[in-house]
Amino acid sequence: MKDERIHKSLWTTTAHGRRFPLLQGDLTVDVVIAGGGITGLTTALLLKRAGKKVAVLEMHRLLSGQTGQTTAHLTELLDTPYATLRSDFGERGARMAAASSRAAIEQIATLVKELGIDCGFQRVPLYRYAETHLQLQELEKEVAAAQEAGLMVRFTQETPLPFPVKGALRLEDQAQFHPREYLLALAEQIEGDGCFLFEETRVVEVQDGTPCRVITDRGTVTAGEVVEATNSPLNRVFMQTKIYPYRTYAVAGPLEGPLEPGLYYDSQDPYHYIRTQRVQGVNYLIVGGEDHKVGTEENTQQRFDALEAYALRRFPVSTLTHRWSGQVIEPADGLAYIGRNSASKHTWVATGLSGTGLTWGTLAGMILSDLLLGRQNPYAALYDATRVKVRAGAKDFIQENAEVAFRFVADRLSRPDGCTLSEVAPGEGKILEVAGQKIAVYREEGGACHAVSPVCTHLGCHVHWNNAERSWDCPCHGARFSPTGQVLNGPAVKDLASKKLPPEANDAPSDGETP
């Protein structure tokens, strides 16, 4: 497990795209899209096909964000049970949620066929299975609710799993594919005819107006409309109260025994999700799970260890060749927020895509492109980004935002991890308190130390060290930073401030330290 290759996703190691240019100065287009994942690329392609000039801005490399960290399930079975959706959005709302997810899957299938994309797209059944009597009771309720919502679902006691279950929900005609191969093909269709894709171009400010101005670290893009397809919107305080960031983990390895292609979900809390994918002639098992709120897990390495143990114990694999994690944004009321952002005239968002990010990311592209083109979309009202459902998700809304308030205060009053550099081991990060101030310190394997402010540049909460991925993570709204303070995930747009280590930090000096 010390091989560094194991910390990359199966997708990024098996599909290598070309480099796209960096923005060089100012530019004017019809629509500027911040974010080069599935939402941004789908929106851009559909708008270009309708004759719009678009520019996609990606902070890092194209598809290096959350789309590159997915397990790539395409499904109508949502993280929020249909029984809950029916209660909160009514029978029609639940049926529309199912129909919209089906429409997104069919949109992907259409593009795969039209563009001749070799991405292993395959129609497969889904199984949500129960292993206890209590789980079985809940599962039977969900089967009934899903049937009422129009899904092709039934209860069964027969599954292809290599272990016995009490019963399972079987949902027909779901799908899976290699997401990076699919999206690299979409990206190749976007450039040209006045449309652009720019990598390593960070958006630092969005100015809503007539026209809008998107300020980046490499120039300003002027446009009539702006789409924030960044998983978590940039510095939108009200929206941040309605979405909650979670880390989710995945492992993959070559299958050494039979397992029929399909999407498999257990009923644990948090649940595990399993599937297979044939990549470069090898059948892989992919297992995800072990979700937790960003920045709240002290030892994230344990999450990988637990997931690996689960995969090796339950499925025909003996070696796991890949491990990775991603960021899931959960919505307060169970459905994604897609549409015009609150208090904006020309800024549009897609967030809260939950664990069905590829399905809902595609749906977001469909809804947003229609709205920007002035066309009616049958699902736009259901996913309206400005909605506030008072009853739906009220418990989670109160609990999550109370936790943010608690973290804002508690982390400032908490005991530091240490007081001197000698307490920071190679490859480790710690919050030190030196001369009355807290400093986030990371020590490289070679010994050199880097010091930054622990205060997140989004709304001022304190970051926590993530030991498995070597990053500083904010537990309030999910911003993540590299060991030396560069932004990895929004909603933050500014790096952590560099700090000069006070002389007191060197009470126990070690070779290679640099302030």
UniProtKB/TrEMBL annotation:
Residues 494-515 are annotated as: Disordered. Residues 416-498 form the Rieske domain. It comes from the Bacteria. One of its GO terms (cellular component) is cytoplasm. Keywords: 2Fe-2S, Disulfide bond, Iron, Iron-sulfur, Metal-binding. GO terms for molecular function: 2 iron, 2 sulfur cluster binding; metal ion binding. It holds the Pfam family DAO. The keyword Disulfide bond applies. The keyword Metal-binding applies. PANTHER family: RIESKE 2FE-2S IRON-SULFUR PROTEIN YHFW-RELATED (PTHR13847:SF274), SARCOSINE DEHYDROGENASE-RELATED (PTHR13847). This is Iron-sulfur cluster-binding protein, Rieske family. It comes from Stigmatella aurantiaca (strain DW4/3-1).
